Amino acid sequence: MAKPGFLVVISGPSGGGKGTVMRRVREMMPEIALSVSATTRPPREGEEDGREYYFMDRDAFEEMVAREEMLEYTCYCGNYYGTPKREARRILESGKNLILEIEVEGNAQIKRLYPDAVSIMLMPPTIEEMRQRLLGRGTESLETVEKRLARAREEIRLAPGYDYIVVNRRDEIEACARHICEIIRAESARACRMTDEIEAFFI
Q1: pLDDT, position 139
Q2: CA angle 67, 73, 32 (to 5 degrees)
Q3: pLDDT at 151
Q4: pLDDT, mean over the chain
Q5: Which of 154, 164, 156 is nearest to 185 (CA)?
Q6: What are phi and psi of 118, to 5 degrees?
């Protein structure tokens, strides 16, 4: 039976560059699995169901919550986001480590279920940089951008509850992704995760 994998939680305020950084992390560490989250928000241009998210209607999402089928979930800017339990368990039980790219509120929920999960908050360097990134998307109104900035300030107050903070500076995607990969590799070598290797000497 494969040794179970461990969870890596990546979250942070909107505009922190999570999607871009995560794509590069997956290229650097193809052996790590990425769970696809579910959401009730409409897909953006170029997004596909089952790739970026499972796009669901509100009733279907709330039914999953009622049946306790979500590992974590939150309501952000009027839309639900969450991680289906079934997929996460399947990946971890296969022995693979699993990255969850989730909203900040979900970190505490994950830590309650998986105390050994490794949590990383990905942050932009300044609030002004975050504003420019959100405006640069061209997908949201100015009012929505301002709501996201207000929410970001609330989320960053929760940063001390994370294991690691990684700052995604402008034009440093490569360095940021490499930093996250280094954290994951170091966590893989923790003594509590190397029990099989230790016990092999006494068989």
Answers
A1: 75
A2: 105
A3: 86
A4: 89
A5: 164
A6: -100, 120
pTM of the full structure: 0.81
| Regions of the chain short of the pLDDT cut 70 | 1-2
Tell me the two tokens of residue 171: 């034009």
Residues in contact with 96: Cβ distance below 8 Å, sequence separation at least 6, in sequence order: 5, 31, 32, 33
CA atoms within 13 A on the CB side of 201: 4
Question: What is the Cα–Cα distance from 151 to 166, expressed in whole angstroms?
Answer: 19
Evaluated on CA atoms 92, 97, 102, 105, the torsion sign reads: positive
pLDDT in tens, 126-158: 888 888 888 877 777 888 888 888 888 889 999
Residue bearing tokens 């306790």: 68
- Cβ of 121: how many Cβ atoms within 10 Å? 24
Spatial separation of the C-alpha atoms in residues 21 and 178, rounded to whole Å: 9
Token pair 């079934």: residue? 86
Helix/strand/coil for 67: coil
Residue listed under structure tokens 């309501």:
75
% residues pLDDT > 70 (the chain) = 99
**Torsion, Cα of 185, 189, 190, 195 (10° steps):** 140
